[in-house]
Design goal:
GO terms for molecular function: serine-type peptidase activity. With about 290 residues, this protein is an alpha/beta fold. It is built from 7 helices and 15 strands. The strands form 4 sheets. A 6-stranded mixed beta sheet has the order 6-7-8-11-12-15, with helices on both faces. Strands 4, 9, 10, 13 and 14 form a 5-stranded antiparallel beta sheet that branches. Strands 1-5 form a two-stranded antiparallel sheet. The protein is elongated.
């Protein structure tokens, strides 16, 4: 449930928003030529704004749709800023379900990578419960992403200490931020067979988690090719009513020298999303 700070936007306000957004794309979008294209197109759209007031949420949704039609970047997003927002999954920090399945297989349905401050205790609890299992299934089929730090933390439970996961490049900077597994955890599960379930709805940070484990040959990916949203973003306020995601960088895997933007993460075993869990159980039961 969301409560908007304002229900409608006047024409002059919308035009100002488009100008500010155009400048942000021109100056900071990850690929300068594409940033210039976005800038010029938004300035053209600015002149086409109609006189009547428009609903804030509807206008943001329509603009996002038009931007993604122009540039196929799933992180392009214009959104109404809210006074109050309730996230139904926040109570469990993204952990929708944990259970043991047939064959002593632990299963976790993870719907988001929440910020480490809140997610780490829940993830520690899940991984502790999974410790006696013969195999582990991590279900990311409905996971749209979240915090890269939390991705690195969960990877730390499954990989050796100080494993290089990703490097991140940002437009206008020669510095490459790096992501590594933690140097210390009380317990790591580096040998247990792991299956990650993925679908076309698996996005962003969830794709990074799957990509990391696949690149390091630590998990078997089962399901569908993922959404293909790899860009890092800067979240900006355009005014008190509207904000935007500006993609400003991308990851570079130290193992593949690439990333998943626009192409997604491909499964090792391709099946329809709704068949992935059954296939995962078959796969784990076939292992010695």
């Amino acid at each position: 449930m969301e409560t908007l700070t304002r229900n409608t936007l006047h024409k002059t306000t919308r035009q100002d928003l488009l100008s500010r957004l155009a400048d942000a794309f021109r100056d900071t979008y990850v690929y300068p030529e594409t940033g210039l294209l976005l800038h010029d197109t938004l300035q053209m759209w600015r002149e086409e704004e109609t006189p009547e007031d428009q609903d804030t949420a509807a206008w943001c949704k329509g603009l996002t749709r038009r931007l993604r039609a122009l540039v196929p970047d799933l992180h392009l997003n214009v959104f109404p800023r809210t006074v109050e927002e309730t996230r139904g999954q926040a109570v469990h920090q993204g952990v929708q379900k944990f259970e043991y399945l047939a064959g002593n297989v632990a299963y976790v349905d993870l719907r988001g990578f929440f910020e480490p401050e809140s997610a780490v205790p829940m993830l520690d609890a899940v991984m502790t419960l999974a410790r006696p299992a013969k195999g582990l299934i991590i279900d990311l089929r409905k996971n749209g992403g979240g915090s890269g730090e939390t991705v690195a933390y969960l990877c730390s439970h499954l990989l050796a200490a100080r494993t290089h996961l990703q490097s991140f490049t940002e437009r206008g900077s020669d510095f490459k931020r790096q992501s590594w597994t933690l140097p210390y955890l009380p317990h790591r599960d580096t040998e247990k067979p792991v299956v990650v379930l993925i679908s076309k709805h698996t996005g962003s940070a969830a794709e990074e988690f799957a990509y990391n484990l696949k690149a390091l040959k630590r998990a078997t990916l089962i399901g569908e090719t993922t959404a293909g949203a790899a860009h890092t973003v800067n979240i900006i306020s355009l005014n008190d009513e509207v904000g935007a995601f500006i993609p400003t960088g991308h990851p570079i895997s130290p193992y593949t020298e690439g990333h998943w933007e626009g192409v997604g993460v491909t499964p090792d075993i391709e099946v329809k999303s709704e068949e992935a869990l059954e296939k995962a159980l078959e796969h784990l039961q076939s292992l010695p």
